[in-house]
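Q: Can I see a sequence and its folded structure?
A: Here is a first one.
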Amino acid sequence: MLFIGSSFGWGIIFYYSKTKAVPAFGGEYIEGIVGQPLYINPLLSSSNETDADLSQLIYSSLFKYDGEGKIIPDLAENYELSEDKLTYKISLNKNVHWHDGEIFNADDVVFTINLISNPAYKSPLRGSWQGIETKLVDDSTIEFKIKNPYVGFLNDLTFGILPKHLWSSVNPDNFSLNSLNLKPIGTGPYKYSTLQKDSHDNVLSYKLVSNPDYFSLRPYISKMTFNFYLDENSALDALNRKEIMGISLLSSENIASIKNQKTISIYKTEIPRYFAVFFNRTKSVPLANDEVRQALSYATNRKEIIDTVLGGLGQEAHSPFLSGMTGYLADLEKANFDLDKANKILDDAGWKKGDDNLRKKDEATLEINLATVNWDELTKTAEILKIQWEKVGVKVNISSFDISDIQENYIRPREYEALLFGQVVGADPDPYYFWHSDNKKDPGLNLSLFGNDNSDKLIDSGRVEFDEAKRAQNYIDFQKILFQENPAVFLYSPSYIYPINQRVQGINIKTLISPSNRFSQANLWYIKTKRIKK
């Protein structure tokens, strides 16, 4: 028995010494997401992270980002840029099929861009496609002609492509209502399988299966299942009960609440996003006054918020330009925390404190209604802001809503006085989509309804300037206008925290352009392994 046992042991050692583990096909990954899918449609998904996550897996784009945040070809095979930097000729991968078996070609790309450009379809991407000529050269070649050189043009080609043969018969009025928004057909590594709803029509789970005909490397993981939760604590409980293997986003304060941490890998990375309180001056008498917005910025202790809410895992934000971006300048004059200065600004402007410590001016009371999403991180931030701002005589009323409610009933119609919300800047620091006058109304993303001729000209100039130093100066001058106008109180840029079971391997996440980009190369993830000869 000793001899047999010893021989068996040596046999195993010999086998492992002569072989190595490599990815194998199979397995199921289950992730928890806080939120609800609304429009799994790349033309509509940019305003809902849940939609963006699923779209990333289902749809392919001309270009995408790798795990280091660098832009790489996806449906595009290669491209040529003319000497005057105005014409992009893009060759497409051949032999690409839609999930229903139909052949993909350049006509699908032109069709998708035409939908984006048409205001009737209300795509948030429309602003980036004004004045661009799209030409169908042949079935596998497209040509784009832009009016002015634009540094970030390839970044604008990272949206998913829709199948013309399915969407061409859908009119604009029914575009957001079509069943393809929940049961989509794409060319990505995973395709729709099933979904489960409760009696109130809420989506409980959403299942994707591997696309065996994916034009790139076939995905190793056979199934991707997503369960949806009302809040982060519910998702965390599910992780601790081992009902799910990962959470789309975890607050820093909840890292310690993960049980069995030895089995969980926690990816921490910076992404170009920030959270701010956006002011709608058309809905509030106090916020229409420059001195009120300026005082609120000085009354905001960003460090306290980061330490309390984020556990120190984040950086202060004073503008849309974060550390490392073109145009970021650390010593640019800004409104650092100063309660005395905030009080003096309001005193000098005639906002007088009453016996109740509440400020009034003429018939107006310094009262602000602050709306936000009912995520723990944001509701806690709102509560801290309420305490901080009340110290200078401001009354703050907080209302929190689920993401779908706040999107449809508040953000799109701009029905809020002050909105605590986040924005993902993207790979290029171009502030056009969030701060240009063109995007004040839905589907634009200018949540402060900010913009004038001077600020718009600086944004426009920055978009066409290939000289890095000159472009940075445009953005510095733009930020100076922001600091004068105070259309928002910028708060922080949190670290992105992604906990996932160590059984899931092959993940390369170093720099993310947006949270959904964690799935950019999900076809390389694997759970199963096999051994082959070294």
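Q: Show me another, different protein.
A: A second, unrelated one:
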Amino acid sequence: MRRFATLLLPLSLIACASAQRPAPRRPWVARAGGPSLDQLLNVHRSFAPSVSADGQRVAFLSDASGLPQAWASAVGEAPTPETGWQRLVSATERVQWVRMNPDGQYVLTGRDVGGDENTQIFRAASDGSQLVNLTPPGVKTMFGALSADGALVAYVSNERSRADFDVYLRPVRDGEARRVLEATGSREAAAISRDGRRVAVVEERSNFDQDIVLVDAAAGTSRSLTAHPAGTDIRYVSPRFTPDGARLWVVSDNGQEFTGLALIGAEAPVQGPLQYVLREDHDIDAFETSPDGSRIAVVFNIDGYASLRVYDARDPAALRELQRPEVPRGVISTLSFSRDGASLVFDLSRATAPDEVFRLDVARGTVHQVTRSEHAGLREEDLVEPTLERVTSFDGTPVSMLVYRPRGLSADAQAPSVVWVHGGPEAQFTPYFSAVIQYLVGHGYVVAAPNVRGSTGYGKRFAHLDDVARREDSVRDLAAVNQWLRGQPGVSPERIAILGGSYGGYMVLAALTLQPELWAAGCDIMGIANFRTFLERTASYRRALREAEYGALARDGALLDQISPIHRVDRIRAPLFVIHGANDPRVPVQEAEQIVAALRARQHRVEYQRFENEGHGIARRENKVAAYGALVRFFDEVLGR
């Protein structure tokens, strides 16, 4: 696992048959007196930091203006409020990332247009002036890395072929981009060697199957360092060069269930077992080295919560743990070291506190908050911390979930509930700050957010339990969650709704068609209704990666049709709310149009919001207010508020 425009398509409400009328009113838990939705959606967040080489300044993203933009602040002992920040970019589109250049002269940012994900890389002076586009418009560019001296930027782009990503090196200051690797498929330019001659590239066949390729930019050659047999899925991600350039640290699950940190040679392919330097029965979610190679920071994922560790890395093969700093329980997404490894800057999102930027003083082991965003008067005590629960699914597989309960929920209450399904499916629901979840809970709903089979964070085997022909086994996990909720005191068994985005939107539609008797309402946000049309229309560079998970059009057409909810739309009983961005390159908006049209043709109740200036997700605050305000009113009505 982040907002402004006008709602161009009004809500469309279709009359429904008597079978779809709202449930009769039942005893209801009193409103918990939580924050209003408007207040929660107007909370500002600061995230994705990049610290300067000397550790004295940090750039980061904030949605203070209504959608993510790049800002900068001094790093002091006390948090700096928004009034003390400097806005680096004044754009009308979202900024997706920001990086401080090691030379201190420039800052780099990436942004697209209307959510189309054709990201461009921009260079600006350190104060945000003199903005220059470094990459060609109209194509997708993915930032990779900066050289140690800040002179070069490595990235990948589909400029040559929309389905393929080539690797480029470009001077940050002046000069032309040079294509250093031309190949088919998807890849990431992850690191540049200290001498600027070599680029470590991640070759991607799926989200669970990669190799590391080393490109010698000077010689114009490349070689694979981790080739493995076809048909075996092994993750190799986040390569970083050791200071001498002779080896690379990589995050991998080669030979084990969970990802660990390993060393591989930079001269010859891996032979035999990997040399792991860090491993636990937990995945590594984030990993970064200091520019001088003296420190490594690792975030282990423990039931969705981040466990931050810092190591002395001067001996690359024998890391020495320095500390496990005391960090509030939550989710860490981005790590950034100062040049000497003395300062580590990171973002932290918690269920009961919006994202902020923090700094760890590595020598002293102390952590303090760097940014203080405007929180619209929100107090941590107004919000609810989830509890970790587990259910056993149909085949004995344990499924974990985070459950949010309204304060003061009595055993004789009859509260409605919402099952919140994450996207991916190669992802995990974690305890991040969610305005919508906190509003629902404060409004009297129980919210259960499961990590069904196919989720990450629970090992390689678990992540593959929903592959291709086993797709609907994950939907059966949702039935187990539903049944668990029905047995909970204070929960109304007849008023359980389901909500999900992206792949989670597919899960909503699948649950409503495969288990129509279990669900009282649904909300599909940018979900897949028809796997065949989804694969035909999704961005060409994504198709192969998605076919590895869902099945291939040329080979598995019958299966794709079988698991597509659009072919079982007659089974849907529950009223449905649909949200989609018109510019979505991942799940094209036609997926929403299909399901809405099919339900309208049957005179079934469906409400639809289409946002003309959004892509895969709702980024602009005013669109969030429109979409989620209408969604909550919908749930209140159809669940018998």
